[in-house]
Specification:
Layout (H helix, E strand, L loop, with lengths): L1 H23 L5 E4 L6 E5 L4 E8 L6 E6 L5 E10 L10 E9 L3 E10 L10 E9 L1
Parallel strand pairs: 1-3, 2-8
Antiparallel strand pairs: 3-6, 4-7, 5-6, 7-8
């Protein structure tokens, strides 16, 4: 009789722990941000990702560059220019893509400037700012 109660108790504990584990877990999300996110604040959890995609045409001399990175709450895990094959022409432009991963709680701000690298004293032609709050 005693072993039957112990078995039921153990089963109940196992079920409760499994339910808590299923309800307490967090599936990492990836937010896809573009120019429409400029000036916004997004909320993340540790492990979430952010993919920022902005139009860029380096053949004009203009490129996006970091003015501020969202570290230490988010780290850069990808940074690449992707040509737009639909343009079909040299100099047709494309997009710059950055991938970030939330690694710690706090607030970080991503700030980018669209400028020619040799014109350091000139204000950027465009700017992009995204505040990331990691909870």
């Amino acid at each position: 009789m005693r072993s039957n109660r112990r078995w039921r108790f153990d089963l109940l504990v196992l079920i409760l722990l499994s339910a808590c584990g299923a309800g307490c877990s967090h599936t990492a999300l990836t937010i896809k941000a573009d120019q429409n996110y400029n000036g916004r604040t997004i909320n993340l959890r540790v492990g979430d990702g952010v993919k920022v995609t902005l139009a860029e045409n380096p053949t004009t001399g203009y490129k996006w560059e970091f003015l501020a990175q969202p570290e230490p709450v988010c780290v850069t895990v990808g940074d690449a220019y992707v040509a737009n094959p639909a343009m079909g022409t040299i100099g047709g432009g494309g997009a710059h893509e950055w991938n970030f991963r939330a690694v710690g709680k706090g607030t970080g701000t991503l700030s980018l400037g669209y400028r020619r690298p040799w014109e350091k004293d000139a204000a950027p032609a465009k700017t992009f700012t995204l505040t990331m709050v990691v909870k």
